[in-house]
Amino acid sequence: MFVFAHNVQILSDVLGCIWQPCSGSLKIWLRAMRKIQKNAVISARIEDSLKKNAESILKRLGITPSEAITIFYKQVELRQGLPFAVKIPNKTTMKTFQDSDNGKNLKSFDNLNDLYKDLEI
After folding, report:
1. Is the C-alpha dihedral spanning 12, 16, 21, 22 positive or negative?
2. pTM of structure
3. Buried b / exposed e along 54-93 (16+ C-beta atoms within 10 A)
């Protein structure tokens, strides 16, 4: 079953071209990144619940927090700025985010063909 939500777009925006087929597999890229010697340290304070939730998601994606930070920094470097728009969502967008987070007004599909048909692509 496929569920279409705003999180898919956020993930795509953050990972950018690294996630796209045009630059190869994310796993191959991560394997190469693991071999590069790293000696810089980043230290940041964040909410414990945010850290736990994000690390749970990263684990399901098969990447470490360090790899996720490396992807983020690489995208900042490539784009010469943040790899996503930073703005305050309008009321409609906020309602859509809230509905999606609460499982409301979502469309689900049994296969990609049904999704594409609904999107008229």
Report:
1. positive
2. 0.49
3. eeeeeeeeebeeebbebbbebbeeeeeeebeeeeeeeeee
